[in-house]
Amino acid sequence: MTLLGSISSAWDDFLGCHLRRRKEKRSIEGEKPAAEIKGELPKLEDAPFDLKGRKIIFVLGGPGSGKGTNCTLLKDAFHLTHLSAGDLLRAEVASGSPLGSELNRMMAEGQLVPMDVTIHLLREAMARAPATSNGYLIDGFPRQVDQGKAFERLLHVVPAAVLFFDCSTEVMTQRLLKRGETSGRPDDNMASIKKRFKVFTEQTMPAVEYYRERGMVVSVHSEGKVEDVFARAKEMLMLRIPEWATLADKDHVEVNEA
C-alpha cells in the first residue's frame, strides 16, 4: 500500500471509530438511528468557525526556535489559548487509535501529516477554548502553504498575524539535542533533526514567505535569553494588535530558563 493509501485508510478507520462511538451512545439513549448519524457530521466547508471576536495567531519557526516556550509565556501575558499542532497530533498517537499509529510512524521519520487531520484536530481544540480566552496561538501551523489556505477556506477565518521566531540552525540544533536528553520524544535525535530542518526549509519557509507577501508576518529574533525573546515577541504583538496592549497582564510573567 502506498503512503497516501495508508494515511487515507488510517483516517477512514479513525472516522469510522468516531461514528461507531456516536452510534453506540445514541442507541443507548434511544436517539436517532445510525443511518442518520453520518449525514449529521458537518463538512468543514459548510461550517464556518465562530471566533467570537477572538484573534488567531499562527506561530512558526524552525524546530527548537522557541515557539512552544514563548507561546506559553504569551498565553499567560494576554490570556490566550495555546494550541500546539504537534501536541494535538502526539495526543492522538497516545490514544492508540489506528490514525495515531500511522502518525507515530510519520512523526518519527520527520514527515508531515495530512492537512485534513491537523485541521480537524485544531478545530475541535479551538471549540473547547474557555470563554475567558482572548484569542488563539496556534503553534507550529501551518507547515505548508496549502495547509494555511485550507484552514482559511474551511473555517472561513483569517489569522490576524503570523508570529515567526527567527533562529539559526546551530542554535536550534543545540536546543533540540539538549531537550532530547530528557524529553523522550522520538524525533529529538540528530537523524530526525536533520530531516526536520530539511522539511522546514523546503515546505514551511515557503508558508512564511507566503504570509510575508500578504503583510502578515511578525518576525522575532529568537536567540538569546528567554526573557529577552519573550519581551520582543510581546512588544511585536502589541504593535501588530494594539487592543492587546490593554489585555496584557499587568503582573510580572515569570520566565524560567530551561
UniProtKB/TrEMBL annotation:
It is found in: Cytoplasm. Its EC number is 2.7.4.3. One of its GO terms (cellular component) is cytoplasm. It catalyses: UMP + ATP = UDP + ADP. The keyword Transmembrane does not apply. InterPro entries: Adenylat/UMP-CMP_kin (IPR000850), Adenylat_kinase_CS (IPR033690), P-loop_NTPase (IPR027417). SUPFAM superfamilies: P-loop containing nucleoside triphosphate hydrolases (SSF52540). GO terms for molecular function: AMP kinase activity; ATP binding. CDD domains: ADK. Pfam families: ADK. HAMAP family: Adenylate_kinase_Adk. PANTHER family: NUCLEOTIDE KINASE. Belongs to the adenylate kinase family. This is adenylate kinase. It comes from Allomyces macrogynus (strain ATCC 38327).
